[in-house]
Amino acid sequence: MIHYDIALSFEHCVRFTHQVFHPDNTTLSEVLGSQSSSGKVLLCLDSGLSEGQPALLGAIPAWFQERPGLQLVSEPLVLPGGEQAKNDWSLVERLWMQIHRHGLCRHSYLLAVGGGALLDLAGFAAATAHRGIRHVRLPSTTLSQADGGVGVKNGVNRFGRKNWVGVFQVPFAVINDLSLLQSLPPRSCRSGLVEAVKVALIRDAAFFDQIESMAGDLAALRPEAVEQVVRRSAEWHTRHIATGGDPFELGSARPLDFGHWSAHKLEPVTGFRLLHGEAVAVGMAIDVLYSALAGLLPESTALRILELLERLGFRLYDPALEESSQGRLVVLDGLDEFREHLGGALTITLLEDIGRAREVHTMDENLILQSLARLKQRDIEREAARQPVPRDEAGHPA
Fold first, then answer.
1. 276-293 helix and 365-386 helix, angle to the nearest 10 degrees
2. Is 194 in contact with 281 (CB distance < 8 Å)?
3. What is the phi/psi pair of residue 350, to 5°?
4. Closest CA to 320 of 268, 277, 369
5. Which residues of the chain have pLDDT under 50?
6. Cα(first)–Cα(last) distance of the chain, in Å?
7. How far are the Cα atoms of 128, 159, 167, 217, 350 from residue 93, in angstroms, in the given order?
8. How far is 341 from 236, CA to CA, in rounded Å?
9. What is the per-residue pLDDT across 65-118, written as a single tens digit (0 to 9) for each?
């Protein structure tokens, strides 16, 4: 037997800036300037971002023209974003073709500017071309800047399952340009806030208190409040990857996926009608109530969490939760898929208190069904409260 231990070291750095493609902004050139022997850069741009900020299509080439040491090999390659893009294998092929056509090598760069789905897809293409070319992420949504975009996962969907094909690769760099959030539709902007709530619930009670105190500003999507929460969430996610002891998930625990076992199932069941953050809000609500029903979490704390999610604008129940197959709710299949994704051993993160998580290895389906029933009743009562009360001609309740 010949035996060696192979030690690897990665640098994982997330930079924050505004207007990264402004002529005077040096953030990106500091990342790329002296690092590449080839100087070749292929840049792909989320179509939603290019529509929301069309000036980028001119600003990006102009930025590179001022830096002759870097060669933008083509105009920005505009690709569709959103979770549905990860179902389209031809987009991966398209990126591979461009990498091949322009002769990019392992010292070249693929820059992805967009939401989490595009970053996942582009990161997978970069990691598999030449066994890995340098990948730089510029997340453009609250969800990707606060969570997925600062991570090390890349993948596409297959067989109706999220991220079935993928790799772990630490990005060469991540740049959170907070000005890219300016054109984000309100629904998408709100969606990303849920990942900040998630990491606060499992890691940082003080952060949860901060989010709670800022709930009004966050619900109104005031930029200063959103930026504060994005920064803190990104810090926690990056810290967990770097110091949590299992950056490539070789074990069976995924604490940062609190609330995700059902969310990952709910997304395809709704045909991705629900955004990822909206599905995670529902998934967290299920697991918060489950934690209370299982005797882990005080009931008052569970209600406090649900109220914050609702104040931020999330609906915590969806009719798709009632979809069944062969007499069993389809959402429950999410447990089996989660188990398979983890390598056969089920590990679910639940809550003992705000900021304190507990891992369990079994889930009681009866308690899950009770949690769903409580969420449905809560949803019915909230919807009824929104309906105007019928009144008679004198203005009294009819």
1. 120
2. yes
3. -120, -175
4. 268
5. 35-36
6. 86
7. 11, 18, 16, 42, 39
8. 23
9. 998 889 999 999 999 998 888 989 999 999 999 999 999 999 999 999 999 999
